[in-house]
Specification:
13 strands; 14 helices; 435 residues; globular; 13% strand
Length: 435
């Protein structure tokens, strides 16, 4: 069986998806990673067979240009902009070209990035088995817990559930342009979809989250085919990044990064720099990405190294604290090394990750709109000086070391594709039959 992987072409999705594809390949499976040209470097670094598609619509270099539109936004504005302006183009071109690519490559089954919304319609229309992957924090469509796009705490009151459901409706309304494209494709191929139910197109075989069960909110009610795994990274298979290691002084290290996508807010970086300047007995590595001019940051404290890109995992191995945007990959990589966090969630699933950081006592978070030097400095000192945060982070370090997320996910995929697979006939919802 030849397994195809398809992911949104941004680092926070490509890194875990290529790690999972590489693990399946190492276990003896034939794997092909399908993506727009900007995904090739990541796939090649992971040692994967890369298959380009949508080259005309998304030529090399187009993804960074397209996503700069949201780099300086935060909160729900990012989701609104992405749903209306960015994701429709990716879905339209993928629906057009993916079927032929699958046929040309002899793909037998698909592993899909679940946030590449409605791409499941392709394997459904082809009668092809597929598995869905939550690279971001998994979304609870039931409303029993807050969707990860909000930093609301875990509460079980009727008022909280009403709030959660209203939040889902708000997010769903912004996906109307993507849904319209999907509906036209489904109608063309005779697929009967329950459009008011976001779970209706998800895999009946397996839905896998790289979030460990222990890091999620408690009492989550998932369908039988849902599986918690654990982080999809093993410290290898990524592009090499140079770093001035000789400049590290041996002082307690704070690693700070706002990720690779929503990293254009100069005010947030200035707050970080101002906060760490008040703590001279630490050293800071601040990774700023490519969406701002370093000259706009103002004075750089003497205890801070500013770089555009950093070898994140290697720095986390040495870190006492991580200041993070609460991207799921960074949060899980921090926990995998027992590093507590101070989170500044920007958007996407980051508010939900930040809420879990606080819920589990592995750090604290502050909203962008509440951010200032004094408050951030206070939080950094609190997490650095209170050993309870590191103790909790080290508990998760042990959890992650023991669950082997990549092997858990790979095993679920292998078992899913070995059973008698569902057949998606026109106008008939698929059901998983017993093997």
């Amino acid at each position: 069986m030849k397994i195809g992987f398809v992911s949104l072409p941004v680092s926070g999705h490509l890194n875990p998806m290529t790690a999972l594809a590489r693990r399946l390949q190492a276990r003896g499976n034939e794997v092909a990673f399908i993506g727009v040209p900007d995904a090739e470097a990541t796939a090649r670094a992971a040692g994967l067979n890369f298959v380009p598609y949508c080259e005309k619509e998304h030529p090399l270099g187009s993804v960074p240009r397209e996503w700069t539109a949201v780099a300086k936004l935060h909160g729900l504005d990012v989701l609104r902009q992405g749903g209306r302006e960015l994701l429709p183009g990716f879905l339209r071109s993928a629906l057009q070209h993916l079927p032929k690519t699958l046929a040309d490559q002899g793909i037998d089954a698909l592993v899909l990035d679940i946030t590449h919304r409605y791409l499941q319609l392709v394997p459904m229309s082809l009668g092809m088995p597929y598995v869905d992957i939550w690279n971001i924090l998994n979304v609870d469509y039931s409303g029993q817990t807050p969707a990860c796009f909000f930093s609301w705490p875990y509460e079980t009151t009727p008022e909280a559930i009403v709030r959660n459901i209203q939040g889902l409706k708000t997010i769903g309304a912004w996906q109307a342009p993507v849904r319209e494209i999907a509906q036209a494709y489904a109608e063309k191929h005779g697929l009967d979809i329950e459009w008011n139910n976001p779970s209706s197109i998800l895999s009946k075989l397996a839905i896998i989250s790289q979030t460990p069960r222990e890091f999620d909110f408690p009492n989550m009610d998932w369908p039988a085919q849902f599986h918690y795994a654990g982080p999809f990274h093993d410290g290898t298979g990524r592009q090499q990044i140079s770093f001035p290691w000789q400049e590290l002084t041996g002082k307690p290290l704070i690693y700070a990064s706002l990720g690779t996508l929503l990293n254009g807010l100069e005010s947030v970086y200035r707050s970080i720099l101002g906060a760490v300047e008040t703590i001279p007995d630490v050293q800071v590595v601040l990774s700023i990405g490519n969406n701002l001019n370093p000259n706009d940051l103002g004075k750089i404290p003497s205890n801070t190294i500013v770089v555009r890109k950093a070898p994140q995992i290697e720095l986390l191995k040495r870190a006492a604290l991580c200041i993070t945007h609460a991207g799921l990959n960074t949060a899980l990589e921090s926990l995998a090394h027992g590093v507590p966090m101070v989170a500044i969630p920007i958007s996407f699933d980051q508010p939900g990750v930040a809420a879990r950081i606080a819920h589990h006592g592995v750090g604290e978070f502050i909203e962008v709109d509440d951010l200032n030097v004094e408050r951030l400095s206070e939080l950094v000192r609190t997490v650095l000086e209170n050993p309870n945060y590191r103790d909790k982070a080290q508990y998760f370090q042990e959890v992650i070391a023991n669950i082997h997320g990549l092997d858990v996910a790979a095993g679920v995929i292998e078992r899913a594709f070995e059973v008698e697979l569902p057949s998606y006939s026109a106008g008939t919802p698929a059901q998983l039959r017993s093997a």
